[in-house]
Specification:
This protein folds into two domains: 1-324, ANL, N-terminal domain (Rossmann fold, 3-Layer(aba) Sandwich), CATH 3.40.50.12780; 328-428, ANL, C-terminal domain (GMP Synthetase, Chain A, domain 3). It is built from eleven helices and 21 strands. The chain has helices spanning 11-32, 34-42, 64-69, 102-118, 138-150, 162-172, 181-193, 222-228, 341-349, 382-396, 407-414; strands spanning 84-87, 97-100, 126-129, 153-156, 176-179, 205-208, 234-241, 246-249, 257-258, 264-269, 282-288, 299-305, 307-308, 320-321, 326-327, 331-334, 337-340, 354-363, 369-377, 401-404, 425-428.
Length: 430
């Protein structure tokens, strides 16, 4: 397959293609999926009524808890056809296993090939992967497979260890890195400490995973600005999840993650599971196309985004997703203030006095939300503490609980035993 050719088609052509693939998905689920076959029967769903994309609203949604409680019922193939078992990170509860067939692995490679191509990837690029490549982590495997399909070079360094990352950069001269943005800052801090001229390196672009680098208007947020103000490097944002087996990736314009319509039907839904209006935030809800092992229908991801449907300057016509505004289950109701975790991260990243952080949310004795910030200060003093508290009070109108910690404890909080990606948010609510 060529690089996501459907993204350049007119919206009406994309719609017709998706409606055809939706029919195939429904028939496949009705035949092979124990979960969806049961759901169709219990809800008296007449699949013949589902003809157009707008008819999706006649179908119930699937939620994370369904996958957690009935994981095996979503498997559509015999176990002897499963090649790879991956799992979700378990950020919002118990991990979910996603089983992939050989066809699914090929689809995953195509997805990331298209994604890296969208992010100006070329066969002569060399990508240094600064991320987990084991522990049932789909993303690491997907990036590796997609870059191979692109024909580019790969350096599998793994996460952490700035000294090793820089030694590898100067020895093997990668043109691009794939990393969590906050780790890129750690790379830069290490370089500053050891007088490494980052702009003399071979790295010219970064594929950013796991964290926002832009605000809702697509301008760089604090994290994105901190990187680009000191490192002459092009940033590309991505958004994906294990369940969707597909990625939304920015092009050079940096105006949202591009949808790959041949791989996924995307809806944005409100609290009543109805489509939101243009420009309104909604929960990203996906139906996978072409998945063989564990396809999903109207699966609510928990991520809140805005869809942009006007054509991109790059020539693609498929919809684009905004940065993730927040996660539905990470919404905080704190002393009359509603706050999503990404907004809190933006505040903390904007403080020069804070080197790193973990936000913890828990329920107090009356069942309302409390926020505890574990902060690693650059230099701790009474003056620093006063500035931090005053800043948070000014920005949030309320002051969360603050606990100052050392670098070792931050590391332990962010990377618990068997963890594979840095945690910035710990939810201990009842």
């Amino acid at each position: 397959m060529n690089q996501s050719p459907t993204t350049y088609q007119k919206p009406e052509e994309i719609g017709r293609m998706q409606e055809m693939k939706l029919q195939e998905l429904l028939q496949y689920l009705n035949k092979f999926s124990p979960w969806y076959k049961k759901m169709f029967t219990q809800n008296q769903i007449d699949l013949n009524r589902i003809k157009e994309l707008k008819d999706l609203t006649l179908l119930p949604v699937t939620v994370k808890e369904d996958l957690q409680l009935h994981n095996d019922e979503f498997l559509c193939v015999p176990r002897n056809r499963v090649i790879e078992y991956t799992s979700t990170s378990g950020t919002l509860g118990a991990p979910v296993t996603i089983a992939l067939t050989e066809k699914d692995l090929q689809r995953l490679a195509y997805n990331e090939f298209s994604s890296f191509s969208c992010a100006d990837g070329r066969p002569d690029d060399i990508y240094q992967l600064m991320l987990t490549l084991d522990r049932q982590f789909m993303a690491g495997m997907a990036y590796y497979s997609g870059i191979r399909k692109l024909g580019a070079g790969i350096i599998r360094v793994g996460p952490g260890v700035p000294s090793l990352q820089w030694e590898t950069i100067f020895r093997l001269k990668p043109t691009a890195i794939v990393a969590v943005p906050s780790f890129i800052l750690k790379l830069m801090l290490y370089a500053s400490e050891y007088r490494i001229n980052i702009n003399s390196s071979s790295v010219k672009k970064a594929i950013c995973i796991g964290e926002n680098i832009r605000q809702n208007d697509f301008s760089l947020n604090v994290l994105g600005r901190k990187i680009t103000e000191n490192w002459n490097i092009k940033l590309y944002s991505t958004y994906a999840s294990t369940e969707m087996q597909t990625a939304f990736t920015e092009c050079a314009a940096g105006k949202g993650g591009h949808h790959q319509p041949e791989l996924l039907i995307a809806e944005l839904l409100n609290e009543k599971d109805r489509p939101v209006g243009d420009g309104e935030p909604g929960e990203v809800t996906i139906s996978t196309l072409g998945v063989e092992g564990m396809p999903l229908l109207r699966y609510k991801t928990g991520d809140i985004c805005v869809a942009h449907r006007e054509p991109c300057v790059c020539g693609r016509h498929s919809l684009r997703l905004s940065p993730v505004i927040g996660r539905k289950k990470q919404m905080i109701k704190f002393k009359g203030t509603t706050l999503f975790a990404p907004a809190l991260y933006e505040l903390l990243n904007g403080m020069d006095d804070i080197a790193d952080f973990v936000a913890e949310v828990y329920s107090n004795e009356i069942g309302t939300d409390e926020v505890l910030l574990h902060l690693l200060p650059v230099h701790l003093s009474e003056e620093t503490d006063h500035r931090i508290r005053a800043y948070l009070q000014a920005k949030l109108r309320v002051t969360p609980h603050i606990r100052y910690v050392m670098a070792e404890e931050i590391q332990q909080l962010q990377f618990p035993v068997a963890g594979r990606k840095a945690l910035k948010f710990i939810d201990k609510r009842i």
